[in-house]
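To whoever is on call:

I kicked off a structure prediction for a single chain this morning and the downstream step that reads the tokens threw a length-mismatch warning. I double-checked the sequence; it's 756 residues and nothing unusual in it as far as I can see. Pasting both halves so you can look.
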Amino acid sequence: MLGICRGRRKFLAASLTVLFVPAITWIYLFAGSFEDGKPVSLSPLESQPHSPRYTASSQRDRESLEVRMREVEEENRALRKQLSLAQSRSPSHHRGNHSKTYSMEEGTGDSESLRAGIVAGNSSECGQQPAVEKCETIHVAIVCAGYNASRDVVTLVKSVLFHRRNPLHFHLIADAIAKQILATLFQTWMVPAVRIDFYDADELKSEVSWIPNKHYSGIYGLMKLVLTKTLPSNLERVIVLDTDITFATDIAELWAVFHKFKGQQVLGLVENQSDWYLGNLWKNHRPWPALGRGYNTGVILLLLDKLRKMKWEQMWRLTAERELMSMLSTSLADQDIFNAVIKQNPFLVYQLPCFWNVQLSDHTRSEQCYRDVSDLKVIHWNSPKKLRVKNKHVEFFRNLYLTFLEYDGNLLRRELFGCPSEADINSENLQKQLSELDEDDLCYEFRRERFTVHRTHLYFLHYEYEPASDNTDVTLVAQLSMDRLQMLEAICKHWEGPISLALYLSDAEAQQFLRYAQGSEVLMSRHNVGYHIVYKEGQFYPVNLLRNVAMKHISTPYMFLSDIDFLPMYGLYEYLRKSVIQLDLANTKKALIVPAFETLRYRLSFPKSKAELLSMLDMGTLFTFRYHVWTKGHAPTNFAKWRTATTPYRVEWEADFEPYVVVRKDCPEYDRRFVGFGWNKVAHIMELDAQEYEFTVLPNAYMIHMPHAPSFDITKFRSNKQYRICLKTLKEEFQQDMSRHYGFAALKYLTAENNS
């Protein structure tokens, strides 16, 4: 800051030099042009030798003046060049700081500040704003509820993390849904120097439920009013943000504004940029009372310690009770009440420059908050239309938002050098496990994948599930990547029950999936499908991790472990629910096998009954699954017996058996060491057998595998010898682990493998 001040002094001195040196020179020249009190003309015509005034002396004077003029001009050119270089070296965000600003030092709500000239540039005057300490923790509070708001929070946090240089502490006031989603997300994101605390929003409902609110944010839109009670009593200050905010600068710059608060100023707010509180938007429009244009509460700086001493709780409650007697309800949630309080107590507010909350709702004056890109600090999508809002520069704002929306969140896991991080047990354990691996091992990458923590966003779309009264419900479990997205609609048409899907996507692909799902009538009509995004990291497809994520987040007592390329028969959901009761799955360790078939035709007239399927099998339209390339995988199902079976029958485990089964939700997880292609299901079925599950084939159930291009992982398996060697090594290690865990009973797996 001191360097900037010195630079400004040099800039001012150079400017004065350029302005005054020529003036003084011309005064000198003008004065020197008098001879004996008479002016000496410098006109070329009067300077000719035939002029009566021409003398040898005056000629010498004239020549000396011309030399002096040239010297002065050279000095001026040098000064101008030096001044130009000084300007070009100064950062762009320090330019234009001397014009009028939107912010007034003492907030009064004067709406004329817009008309007076709003934007001045983005830096404070020299020495006015103390720097934030390098490792000072910045506290941010966000109210978040539901599935959609959880997605918005991720984009907001990405924009903050992208620019930040300080440790961050997020205080999330969240409902049960948002807490489940965001707790898992941050736990798997593992961003250094970021702490997350949750506060139960549902417990706060009673504090604000008495206030009728017409705003689309509902009851959660009022919860910023109770932050003084909700947040820790030792927390002195906090930045409060709406979920529809995007940062275009380091949040530390906003945190530093707290140092500008004076006297009783406890709220930092930007003036509202629409005419809402002026009451002239339509006939009989009657807004809540506000100071001038009022203030927008999408970005708030709260001095919590002073607010508590002022009895903020009592202040806003009394104001709300008084105004509700005539207004009956709020239209803009907490913003109406904040403004009513400020109307009565204008000394509470410090008015922030408007670039700290550029409001992109319809008919706002946000365009007056910036001159160019460098002026932008915070963008607020505070219209229900969000990205479809009308604004002169909306394309630029939309692209900035989409940049963070699709930005790879893994790249934000960067350390803050020089700042000590709090001890994280999960992170320390991970580092210890990785350090024990031999990096010279040819299978190092395979082993490392087992310990990779993939960022996970649960319930990416809205999810609703009503438990079945008879406790027999079954969830279809599967995993997929972007190239299998087209299977979703077909599966939803074949299976009406709940579905749990783990999708392996990049951040950009997750947004493509979102647009695809929102554009599909079939998918949007189904609310009992849980979509869980596992973000891409590393070179392998973590197939068993994906299965485990999908399994872990089912809401039913039973699950059907399928694959995304299979279409279940019509009516399979109800058939399995009946089978669960018939075979007493609740009290026995059974794995119910759904026989698998396949077709090589992309267009298939799907069989509507077992008889129709057998006819197609005989005609060569269908085949038993993988009979021509991997017979051992499904041979123990005994398809010959299934053709005539009318009751369930038991089969024994055999080497390489990998059927698709229905099990209780407490069954063992898949082994994460198997990634990509090969042995991922085989190992799981082996473990079920080791735990003494009984394999029972269902006589009237079937599923059909639909054709698709070979996956990238199977191509690697077929073409890469080292891939196959590593897979064999992992198989042997898995079998050894089984022997250690299950003892003598597990020896048969080694014997079976040797004989196969």
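Update from on-call: the warning came from a stale cache, not from the record. Cleared it. Sanity check on the structure: The chain has two domains: 138-412, 459-751.
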